[in-house]
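Q: Sequence in, structure out?
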Amino acid sequence: MKIKLKASKKQLDCIACSTDASGIAGEAACVYFPNSVEEAGRIAASHNNIVPRGGGSGLAGGAVPLNSCVIDLSKLNKIISIDEARKTAYAEAGIILDELNAELGKRGLEFPVNPSSHAICTIGGMIATNAVGSRAIKHGRTANWVEYVDVINSKGEIKRIGKADLNDFAGMEGTTGIIARVVLRLAEKPKRTASLIKADDFVRITEALGILRLQKDVSMIEFLDKKVSELLGFSSNYHLIVEFESERGEIKDEKYTKLIALRDSIYPKLASEGYIIIEDPKIFLSKMKEFLDFLEDNGIPCYGHIGSGILHPCFSVEKKKKIPEMMKLVKKLHGNITGEHGIGLSKKEFLDDTEKKLISVIKKRMDRFNKFNPGKIIDFASEKAEEKTENQEAKEENNQGVKNGD
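A: Exactly. Output:
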């Protein structure tokens, strides 16, 4: 006789929240779906080892629980108000970017930062990773558009944080508190068109970039290597997708929409071919040829926001062993190991001591008891232990000095 075992809703919630888009396996001890910011604060006050969760679209394991209490903000998805005159929106952090922009679009406005995960990512998650996206060359990072945030601290208190202290939360990947509500600056929604540029060699790509990056109506310059170009149905050349916030591009209206959708489909298409691991180094244009040569020599396809220096090399499981070698090259070229996805769990091993100390300073100030997202970015608990050991050694050394009459 077969026995059917039915999982409870709590068990299903824990399973669903045990990972994020990185695919890294974790374990949720419990999951809460607060209906208000105040309820989220009460939950935060009564638990330790808390993982704030937005859309689960992160690719670095930043929302993966390590036997943690997950606070899922998906029900905190209200637009509180829109001020058309001041071009600002006040919203809860769990609102999805596309849903926000659908409402703003009725008023001729938009939030212009545009990550590929726009259909599922939340505003709170975008702030937590300081998301960039394809239009960074014109619109920069998410933090550039934030007026202030309401955050939940380790006591469950709701505190308002302005621009001066925003870096304590923007880009800290949920390790310093929970972003609960936000006030965003908005832009007028422009007419957009595009052009597709083909080049036989990277020298021509560099020449085109030198011109395009100086033009004010250019909002996106996306790079496709030869393999990615073929995958999308283009010729086996390098290609640039250039977006204009004007009528200048020859690709317009429905054709423009299809081209942007095609660009958004790149990673799913690569993943279906077995290239499931995506990275996001940021490289200076002058060093990019050397970096791309390494990828081509090793059969690693690549695309990305070349206008802002961010590339997305994609690795198969078999090629995963090349990631440390690539990260070593990134550092040699004075690049950044992450341009937009964050550190999370997947890139911790590649941080140097200086980077760890800078992050640790903020963590100590904002979450000294290591309540929020422990184990992410840096091993804060072990750093505290090392610091305690160093202080104890210093104390013992001082006591010995006193004994010796020094």
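The chain has a mean pLDDT of 93.
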